[in-house]
Structure formats: structure tokens, C-alpha cells
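Blinded run. Sample ID left blank on purpose so nobody reads anything into the name before looking at the predicted structure. Input follows.
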Amino acid sequence: MAEAIARQDAGEILEVSSAGLFPLGIVPDMTLETLKRNGYSTAGLESKPISKDALLNADLVINLSGHTKAASLSASAKIEDWLVSDPYGEDEGVYQVILQEIQRRITDLVARLRKDRMKEKVDS
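Blinded prediction complete.
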């Protein structure tokens, strides 16, 4: 969900890619349905593992796995852990709540990044 939301809501400031520590190999139907119901494109979404190269080359990695960065993603210091529940196997109401939580977090991230960029411009 996070990839589709970030692409649409923050594509002008973020280059988005998604991968998992323990990918299912499929994008669950309820994920696709929830995204579509909320006006998000599901084109190109896939379940895939994260690569070491992606970790090393990313400016920022948002970790939604539930595993802290120290335990699972130590290859990169640019990791931000978001404690967001995994809705897999839950009903559509839970998926909707998770979608809204991810929307809020992405909005907050974009505001923070814009603020940081403005501060960098002022400082230089």
C-alpha cells in the first residue's frame, strides 16, 4: 500500500520503490481493492524482496516490517521505522485504517522533507 500511496501523494518529492524483508510473492486482493477504492493506481505493484544494493543506494528507507532497523536492516543507517500494523488476513475496515495511517505518515514525511530542503537552502 505504501508504494502506491507515496507514488500518487508524494511523487513530486519522492522516488518510490517498495520491497520487503519477507515478501509474500503476491499483492493481496484486499490491498488492491482498498487502494482502488481510495483512488490509487495499483499498476506495477508487486511483492519482491529488498536487495542490499537498494538499501545502500537509497537516500531513505522506510521500514514497515515491524522489525527494527538494528535487527534486520543494518546495511543502511538511513532507515526510519514506522510501526504500522500489517493488515494481511484482516477485513476491509482494518485495511482502510492502515491505508489512512500510511497516508498520514507520508504526508508528515513530505512536510518534514520540504522543511529540511528549505532549511538547507537558507543555510547555504
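Unblinding after everyone has recorded impressions. The chain has a mean pLDDT of 89.
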